[in-house]
Design goal:
heterodimer, A: alpha+beta, Immunoglobulin-like, B: alpha/beta, 8-stranded mixed β-sheet, 5-stranded mixed β-sheet, 13 helices, extended, disordered N terminus
Chain lengths: 688, 573
């Protein structure tokens, strides 16, 4: 609407100037330039509307205060290109590398995410579109759907992982082994057989992954909203997830004009800088105030010049909106004005540094009283001399909680020791009165939960031991599972995959699944570096198929904006569980060398003594000793000779006793033989 | 004899244990090695050495066929044989100036001469199919259009035999000015008032320096640095860089350029290389060095000495292509649109002049053209940058510069003139970018260079394998080496027969296979078990043992000296 206004205004202005031109005759060239400018701007805008088939790039940023004094920033960039058969293969906005990738490997849909940290479902919400689409498991997650014959899917996947690992400077190529990826049948996304899914939970995510990701944007981080991405501020956040989602119908037989679409999002959860002590108002702590500059250390200097739209949104969630109303009622006189029509720039509860260009309200659905509000700010109007720095300052303390997923999913390990254990997935109702579980129960239907879990082959899961506990009591598995698909792991070939739809009664408070497993052994070559750290079991995906995480907004014009499209996309509520760390028995990797060393030492000792014995001339030595004894020596020299004899390891034979009885030696000999025999017997006894 | 019996017993028990350990000790590493690689198949070292010596000792030379046609010359002054001999003598003189480069013609060139005058028509040599008197139909004086003449000659000289014969037609006319033109096909003509000796020298020069060597001069790119990938593929990557999109944004219709201008060039290069084209437009790509304002030239000047710092590899994400394989060559062609702060930007030659093309090349990398927008001097304080499209006329001009740059990257001349000792000749430019005789030169050089490369690769492979006797070589590598050698031999025989295309093709095959063998993944992971490593592992054994042995030797030596002293003393008694 605003845009329309702008257009009409511009048109009006151009008309007036035209009239004035006619009236005044010749004008200054500046006016002419201005005129040309406006007309070209107009024509380009009109051309954009008339000619649908063009490349487009849009950028957007959504900011949302979180209940635990943090701020969520969700960057959204979208590039799209019409299909090749209409538009050709030369582009001016769409990244060349991605286009080539799609065409070479015939990718129909693909999603790649790099995540650091874990999304806190309890505090940051688990029901809204952002947590369902942008909360990702730690490390790398990649899934891709190919448009190739079934027998070539694996090859395409392997090539794709290599290409992506080169493109994003990450070890995605580790996903090429058949042990590290799986082919979900129906639970993950509904593609038949041509989808591959793999995760690398331990991949460290850093700037070297962000820079190639930014390279795919036409303005990179030089201009527009991406200029906010100051690396230190982004990476010091609590959660960081960069995502790349790609859809293409270039290969489909359907003559749709959707073409290829690349969606890039970066979701960060940041802690605003609260200088000094927390501000207190009437005994409660205030939410921290923040601005773009304090969050990112930078400001926005205008939009990326090739982007079609460049907007910043601040979202107040539904619960926050109702809380704001409450606070308002309490603090002020019963001035029961609806918040929407209030001044958002400055009211009694909070203050914003810029007034929004538009306020968008979510369409109320069903019994919800309040709905979330989006404040829209257009970046186009700002430039170098007047940078955009949005700030939010709280005046009154507000406490609220985010909307939760129907059940909170978590996963943990049970058992101890290096031999066996059990995996448990627990689903817990957070028992707050505003969970949508209530709605489900009213219908009297059951809660259906889709669980998808991949387990590496060295964790040998016994699927027959699957147990379902509901509210702490063991239940029959058959009754509570609607559908299940298991492909057991094969040693060194494929991981175990479990997909199931769990059916739970409505008022359920806790539900748990347990699966027992044995820990396998790996070949010495298969251990990764630092094997003692343990092995990761990738996150399980829990999706609530009865619930749609989508918001619909009142304004139809908004459908043009991709960032809001993303929010409105109808998707199941999805949450990821924790990554599990399984310690496996690890061998002592230095053992072969130790064995070699000790054996060598023993051999060297044996060799040395053998050599000494062989070399010794007993008769000669005795003769020499005798001749020495014949000579009369002083006490000092005899002592010296004794010492030297001892040092040389020869038996000290006092010259005074030239001959000893052989029987005595025989006694010693017998003793020693017995000793050796005893040791040998003991050896045999203990080591048999 | 005090201790021996118990010692013996201990010895036996030790022996019993050590027997087991010994087996472990000796067998583990061997087993480890054998576990991974089954056997070692040595590449044919001798054949590789033969090939590399054959290639290195004498450069590959192709047989070439030349034909000179003298029209309207006096038939009585020279006979055809005399002319042929003197042309060959002159050619030898020109060829002697520079050593026979790889991929040129062998010394045993054949020159056939035809004398065509009004009355009679004499020729030597056997396969001369010159239509005598055919030129009389042309009115040379009326036809000044070189392109039309070229087509006429082409139809005249069209031979269906397939053999590649280079022809120079010398026509004696009444025109004062002598004009030498090299056509787009395999012929050239000289026209004007010219005498036999002069004509002979000129013909010989065109044969040697143009048709044989491609009109190259010193300082141009050497044939060895031809921008061709080992797999014979080139990716031409065209980039339009908008240095600062806040000022203006330029776009181009590359689809049109690709279809209309590039595709004939790609077709022309097909026998030489498999060319693919891609394009992209990038934004926020400033160059890395600064220019300065020159009042006299009324523009920003970037001097030649700063050119190495023009390419800004930090900001120019020209990107290697995903579509190109690992062995393909990527040539980047960049159109640089300067920002308003430094517009118009001109490149300055070392002699102070402004470059006419406003571009430069970097061998084996590609070319850059600075393109100044016409709206340079308008007000830059525009809130919303304007989007423009480079007009088709401008893009045609840009493309022409790029074609010249591509020709230069291939080592060919881009200015269309050949300045020789006997005067200047005009080189007609083909609309396909490369004329036929140039492609011949390129494919000769290409096959020669490929063969050289193949020889050195195989040579280093064999040296590597020989220097590491314990390294295990997979069977595939041996096979690849064998096939590579076969292809190399085929190239040599094709070169002898003078089939340029086929020899280029097989030489490419030979090089590709050699490179594949060298960069085989199993070679890359150097998983061989070196002797030194073996020694290091067993050093806990060898060190104490050697200590014992040394001590024993010392003692024995001492005793020997003592005893011998005693013996001598006793003997002396």
């Amino acid at each position: 609407m605003f845009k329309c206004c702008l257009h009409s205004q511009l048109q009006f202005r151009s008309e007036t100037s035209l009239e004035s031109d006619h009236l005044m005759g010749s004008r200054e060239p500046i006016v002419l330039i201005f005129l040309i400018l406006i007309s070209t701007y107009e024509s380009s805008a009109k051309g954009g509307i008339a000619e649908e088939l063009n490349e487009e790039f849009t950028e957007g940023l959504l900011l949302r205060p979180l209940p635990d004094r943090k701020v969520l920033a969700h960057f959204h960039f979208q590039s799209s290109v019409p299909p090749t058969r209409i538009y050709g293969r030369h582009h001016h906005l769409f990244p060349k590398s991605i286009y080539q990738l799609v065409n070479k490997f015939r990718v129909r849909e693909m999603e790649l995410s790099f995540t650091q940290g874990r999304w806190n479902y309890e505090r940051w919400g688990g029901y809204d579109p952002i947590s369902s689409s942008s909360a990702k498991p730690p490390g790398v997650e990649l899934w891709a759907d190919f448009d190739v014959p079934l027998d070539q899917v694996d090859d395409s996947w392997r090539n794709l992982t290599h290409a992506l690992s080169g493109l994003f400077c990450a070890s995605i190529n580790f996903l090429e082994h058949s042990t590290s990826y799986s082919a979900p049948q129906w639970s993950f996304h509904s593609f038949a057989g041509k989808l591959r899914y793999g995760t690398l939970p331990r991949e460290a995510v850093c700037t070297e992954n962000l820079t190639p990701w930014l390279k795919l944007l036409p303005c990179r981080d030089k201009a527009g909203l991406s200029a906010l991405m100051d690396r230190p501020s982004i990476y010091k956040g609590y959660y960081h997830s960069q995502r790349l989602h790609l859809t293409s119908d270039d290969f489909g037989t359907a003559k749709s004009n959707a073409g290829t679409m690349l969606e890039q999002t970066l979701t960060v959860v940041l802690q605003p800088n609260t200088l000094g002590a927390r501000a207190m108002v009437s005994g409660k702590t205030l939410q921290p105030s923040w601005s773009l500059n304090s969050l990112f250390g930078r400001k926005v200097h205008g939009k990326c010049s090739v982007s079609k739209s460049s907007n910043v949104y601040v979202q107040f969630e539904q619960n926050l909106v109702s809380e704001l109303k409450e606070v308002r009622k309490k603090s002020e006189a019963p001035e029961s004005g609806i918040l929407i029509h209030d001044d958002f720039g400055n009211n009694t509860i909070f203050e914003m540094s810029a007034s929004p260009d538009r306020v968008v309200k979510e369409v109320e659905n069903l019994q919800k009283e309040d709905s979330s509000i989006l404040l829209e700010f257009l970046v186009e109007d700002y430039n170098d001399s007047k940078p955009f720095d949005l700030g939010l300052r709280w005046k009154l303390p507000v406490v609220w909680s985010c909307q939760q997923a129907p059940l909170h999913a978590s996963r943990f390990l049970m058992g101890s020791g290096n031999e066996r254990g059990a995996i448990a997935i627990s689903l817990k109702s957070l028992s707050s009165n505003n969970t949508p579980t209530v709605g489900c129960c009213e219908k009297g239907s059951q809660l259906r939960i889709n669980i998808f879990q991949v387990v590496p082959w060295y964790v040998k899961v016994y699927y027959h031991t699957l147990k379902v506990f509901i509210d702490g009591e063991l239940q029959s598995t058959m009754e509570n599972i609607e559908k299940i698909h298991i492909s057991p792991s094969e040693d060194k070939v494929s991981p175990g995959v479990m997909e199931m739809i769990l059916r739970l009664p409505c008022g359920v408070i806790t539900a748990a699944l347990t699966l027992e497993f044995d820990k396998g052994f790996l070949h010495i070559d298969e251990y990764p570096p630092d094997a003692n750290q343990g092995f990761d079991i990738p996150s399980a995906v829990v999706s609530f198929t009865d619930f749609q995480a989508s918001a619909s907004f009142e304004d139809n014009l908004l459908n043009k904006l991709p960032i809001l499209n993303e929010l409105q996309e109808r998707k199941h509520v999805i949450s990821y569980t924790e990554v599990l760390l399984v310690p496996l028995t690890t061998p002592d990797f230095s053992m072969p060398y130790n064995v070699i060393t000790i054996t060598c030492t023993v051999f060297a000792l044996y060799f040395g003594s053998l050599l000494n014995v062989l070399r010794r001339r007993v008769g000669e030595e005795e003769r020499r000793l005798k001749s020495k004894a014949a000579k009369k020596k002083g006490p000092l020299t005899s002592l010296l000779s004794k010492l030297s004899a001892k040092l040389k390891g020869r038996p000290v034979e006092p010259p005074e006793t030239p001959s000893t009885s052989p029987s005595l030696i025989n006694n010693k000999l017998v003793l020693k033989v017995i000793l050796v025999a005893g040791i040998a017997a003991g050896w045999q006894y203990y080591f048999r | 004899m005090i201790y021996p019996p118990p010692l013996n017993l201990v010895q036996f028990s030790f022996l019993a244990i050590s027997e087991q350990y010994l087996s472990i000790l000796t067998q583990t590493p061997i087993r480890l090695i054998n576990y991974r690689f089954r056997y070692r198949s040595p590449p044919p070292f001798r054949e590789i050495d033969d090939l590399s010596t054959a290639i290195e000792s004498s450069p590959i030379l192709f047989p070439c066929h030349f034909r000179a046609v003298f029209v309207n010359f006096d038939p009585n002054s020279y006979t055809a044989d005399q002319l042929s001999i003197s042309v060959q003598a002159h050619m030898a003189k020109f060829a002697a100036k520079n050593s026979p480069a790889c991929g040129t013609c062998a010394s045993n060139v054949t020159v056939s001469v035809t004398l065509d005058s009004n009355s009679n028509c004499i020729s030597n040599g056997n396969n001369v199919d010159w239509k005598c008197g055919a030129l009389n139909e042309f009115k040379f004086a009326e036809k000044h259009e070189d392109g039309l003449l070229d087509e006429d000659f082409a139809s005249l000289l069209d031979n269906n035999s397939g053999a590649k014969v280079y022809t120079v037609v010398a026509v004696k006319t009444e025109q004062e000015e002598v004009r030498a033109v090299v056509g787009k096909y395999r012929h050239a003509w000289i026209m004007g008032r010219i005498f036999e000796e002069e004509a002979i020298e000129k013909i010989a020069e065109i044969f040697v320096n143009v048709f044989m060597n491609g009109g190259k001069e010193e300082g141009l790119i050497h044939g060895e640095f031809m921008p061709l990938g080992a797999d014979g593929r080139i990716v031409l990557s065209f980039n339009l860089l908008n240095a600062d999109p806040h000022n203006w944004i330029y776009d181009w219709d590359f689809q049109e350029i690709d279809e209309n201008l590039l595709s004939p060039v790609i077709d022309a290069l097909k026998p030489l290389a498999d060319v693919s084209v891609e394009s992209q437009v990038l934004y926020h790509t400033p160059k890395s060095s600064f220019s300065f304002w020159d009042d006299r030239l009324d523009s920003y000047i970037f001097s030649t000495k700063d050119l190495p710092f023009f390419v800004n590899s930090n900001e120019w994400h020209l990107d290697t292509s995903v579509a190109a394989g690992g062995l393909s060559k990527i040539l980047q062609f960049v159109v640089y649109v300067p920002s308003a702060k430094e517009c118009p930007l001109q490149l300055q030659l070392p002699n102070g002049e402004i470059s006419t093309t406003n571009g430069f090349i970097s061998p084996m990398w590609g070319g850059i053209v600075v393109w100044n927008p016409s709206a340079c001097l308008t007000d830059s304080k525009i809130k919303h940058p304007l989007r423009y499209k480079i007009s088709s006329e401008d893009s045609r001009k840009l493309f022409e510069v790029f074609m010249g740059q591509l020709r230069q990257l291939f080592g060919l001349k881009s200015d269309g003139l050949f300045v020789g000792a006997s005067g200047t000749s005009i080189l007609l430019a083909s609309e396909r970018g490369f004329s036929e005789w140039e492609l011949d030169v390129l494919s000769r050089q290409h096959s020669c260079f490929n063969l050289l490369q193949c020889g050195t690769t195989l040579g280093s492979l064999s040296r590597l394998v020989q220097s590491l006797p314990r390294m295990i070589i997979m069977d595939d590598i041996g096979k690849q080496v064998k096939y590579s050698l076969e292809a190399a031999r085929l190239t040599l025989s094709n070169a002898l027969l003078g089939i340029y295309d086929a020899s280029a093709e097989s030489s490419r095959q030979a090089r590709l296979l050699a490179e594949d063998a060298f960069y085989h993944p199993s070679m890359m992971s150097v998983s061989y078990y070196s002797f030194e490593h073996c020694f290091a592992v067993y050093s806990p054994f060898f060190l104490p043992v050697s200590l014992h042995v040394l001590l024993a030797v010392l003692r024995e030596w001492k005793r020997y000296k003592q005893e011998s002293k005693k013996y001598y003393a006793w003997k002396a008694k």
